[in-house]
Design goal:
The complex is a heterodimer. Helices cover 37% and strands 16% of the residues of chain A. Chain A is α/β, with parallel strands linked by helices. In chain A, helix 6 (87-95) links the parallel strand 1 and strand 2. Chain B is globular.
Chain lengths: 220, 220
């Protein structure tokens, strides 16, 4: 179960003013809106989430790295838990047109407003009850999603990922390594429910039986 | 195992400016100082912890309630994990002569500056490795302490607490029921490592085998 990082370079590209969301004084109200994972979260003001981020192809290098590392081919079956609008699956499919991609997200808005090329590959559902048979996927991904779950649902989601995967999985979660990164995470996050250091995450993975790969993003 | 609240009245008697700690001070720096649990935390500025709070007898009614509820009698042994300066133990000993009180705290400073009457009954140590025999205490208390541990430490502390008790136990933890209380907790806390809703805490109790009583404090 190694730590592998496919994501940090992308995460670090975005500039964040960590305190801004606190200074506004309406953090709790914004978090309530964000947690609905509706239009405001995906395409609304930055104070509610993505701030109307327009897709610029940024997931293409991540898709290429994942394909190379996990040896994906046109016969592979890939699931993305918390796929959002399906950008990563779109990039995987672009490289491997025969690859069977599947995405799951809790947000009806994200699925309905997904990239048209993969919209038909996405399902609405919960990470803790994946609507797929056992041993279905060669690779299960979950990128910056699982920390949004409460710990009981996190346990359910990790068990589900283990159940539906045939071989590999790779998850990315938010974490912190020192007081500065902890403060940045606490102040920046809107929907995070798991605040763990890397050591805690690794303990949680063992305790909850997650045996796949992982990496962390930090708010430096 | 029951939810019983002995301390909300005390918690609510303190007014707190939640945002001040984030906006007026460098939270990460303050947290680093606080986590040493030294002079600054106990007797320094408010931004580092207690703000030089002077004991005013506020734990006396809690001591009386605990004695009545748990039917404590002279000769019984009580342990307070995270006893700090021993105020609650001193009030317990004063209310019930003959009660054998013991305290443990990670902070050498707190023990050296504890209330004189109980100083000899306090030891410096960690909740994850209690220096006491099995089934040694008629009542084990841990008030506003265990959420300072990381999740693996909390798991170990629960195991230790269960090991040394032969009667009841009562623990108090920080928690939140809404986005507003979550934001208040995040902004106010300096040393908290467990951010869980009541449902999550109860899930962890179940999983880690905690069988005693508990209550939560909220930042309303």
């Amino acid at each position: 179960m190694p730590e592998r990082d496919f994501i940090s370079a992308l995460h670090k590209r975005t500039a964040r003013n960590y305190l801004e969301r606190v200074e506004r004084g309406d953090k709790a109200a914004c978090a309530s809106v964000a947690r609905e994972f509706g239009r405001e979260y995906w395409d609304g003001d930055r104070k509610y989430g993505y701030g109307g981020m327009r897709y610029d192809g940024r997931w293409a290098p991540v898709a290429r790295d994942l394909i190379a590392h996990y040896g994906l081919c046109n016969e592979s079956h890939v699931l993305d838990v918390g796929c959002g609008k399906g950008f990563l699956l779109f990039e995987i499919k672009k490289c491997l047109p025969g690859c069977r991609v599947r995405g799951l997200d809790f947000s009806r808005y994200a699925v309905e407003n997904a990239k048209p090329e993969v919209r038909g590959d996405l399902d609405l559902g919960l990470a803790q009850s994946l609507p797929y048979p056992d041993f279905t996927f060669d690779l299960v991904l979950s990128i910056t999603t699982l920390h949004n779950l409460h710990i009981d649902d996190l346990a359910g989601a990790l068990a589900e990922i283990e159940r539906v995967k045939r071989e590999h999985s790779y998850i990315v979660v938010e974490s912190y390594r020192n007081e500065r990164e902890k403060a940045n995470l606490l102040h920046w996050q809107l929907t995070c429910e798991c605040f763990f250091t890397p050591r805690e995450w690794e303990w949680v993975f063992r305790e909850l039986g997650y045996a796949g790969d992982y990496s962390f993003i930090f708010f430096e | 195992m029951a939810y019983i609240d002995f301390i909300a009245k005390i918690h609510k008697s303190t007014p707190r400016d939640y945002l001040e700690r984030v906006l007026r001070h460098d939270k990460a720096q303050c947290a680093e100082v606080a986590k040493a649990f030294g002079k600054e935390y106990w007797d320094g500025e408010r931004k580092y912890g207690y703000g030089g709070y002077r004991y005013d007898g506020r734990w006396r009614p809690v001591a009386a309630d605990l004695i009545a509820h748990y039917g404590l009698k002279p000769g019984d042994r009580v342990l307070d994990i995270g006893c700090g300066k021993g105020y609650l133990l001193a009030d317990l000993a004063e209310s019930l002569p003959g009660l054998q009180v013991h305290g443990l705290d990670i902070s050498r400073y707190a023990i050296e500056h504890a209330k004189e009457e109980v100083r000899g009954a306090l030891a410096c140590g960690t909740a994850t490795a209690l220096p006491f025999p099995d089934r040694h205490f008629d009542l084990v208390l841990s008030l506003n302490t265990l959420h300072y541990l990381h999740i693996d430490g909390f798991c170990a502390a629960v195991r230790e607490l269960e090991r040394v008790k032969r009667g009841g136990s009562y623990i108090v933890l920080e928690s939140y029921r809404s986005e507003a209380e979550k934001a208040n907790l995040i902004h106010w806390q300096l040393t908290c490592e467990c951010f869980y809703t009541p449902e999550e805490w109860e899930w962890l109790f179940d999983r880690f085998g905690y069988t005693g009583d508990y209550s939560f404090i909220f930042f309303e």
